[in-house]
Amino acid sequence: MLGMHTNKGISRREFLPGALAAVAAAKSAWTQTLTAATSRPRPFRLIPLNTGECLLGKNHVLGDPYSDDERVPFTIYAFLADGGPGRRVLIDLGPVGLKYINDMFRRYRFFRDLPGDPDAIRQPHSNVFDWLKRLSLEPADINHIVFTHLHADHHGLTDARDGGAVMRFPRATVHVSRIGWQDNLGKRRDGQWNSYVDYAFADYLLAGEQRGIVRFHDNDEVLSGMDVIHMGGHSPCSQAIRVQTDAGPVVIAGDEIYHYSLFERGILSRLYTTPEQQLAASNKLADLAMDGAILLPCHDPLLSKQYEQSGDAWLRDLAPISRRAARGFKASAKKKLPRSAAEG
User: Fold this and answer.
1) What whole-number distance in Å separates Cα of residue 232 and Cα of residue 334?
2) Domain 45-343 adopts which CATH fold?
């Protein structure tokens, strides 16, 4: 019979529609895959912004058996996560009003009373706004600001009269831990905040939520390629920020970890909420690093040194240091926490 393959029993009229449909389906699947690949947001370029440097007493920040005559070098960072237009994020802002923040640190006895004020915060690389200028960006180019926590050396307060530096970013949505914010609200009595969050800044956040420019959430996506993970060890509002980069996932650890070298030896901060929360947060961060994330402690001078030395390869160069610190923490027998600063 014309058009029949008698040895197979299938006609061309029966075969061709199915074959064409299979080709069309394959083409459609390929088009969808290609569209998804081309529309997938690119990884973030992450840059550490050195916004201040100071020296702090070891006993004050690490507890016994250290002495405050021994000093710990602290670098105070903001981080720019640049995913291109519409995806530019600042993680923390660092100090902006130096007189205010230095007066606060003196009040809490972080600094020694010595001639020349050698411990005070200085800004050899200036503040976050000067960093943006050097990177050819304006405050209006920033789409999101995510805070690791609400201590004044991280949120850019200038003089405690209003929201401070965050108010200079006209297009940014601000992200804060809801668990920490609820803790802050729970201390409020008769219009008084009664908490560790600067009162004018707390007023700004409260009004900002009503205006839709502040978002309180935990363990949630900020935008594609970036999410927040509640920690609650250093302060009730402490959260880590996970960022997808060309070097793989990076976790900005906030003040849950001060320095790689301290973490590796199991030496934890004296400034914490409860021993259980601090240890749980530290173990969670170590687990993330063991699973391949690169941890970034928020006060380790090594970050800016590595960026200056390696440029955009800085994260890959820090990866083995992060893994070693996590392994050391897991193996360390020195995880007994010092007495909390809140206790005395």
Assistant:
1) 21
2) Metallo-beta-lactamase; Chain A (3.60.15)
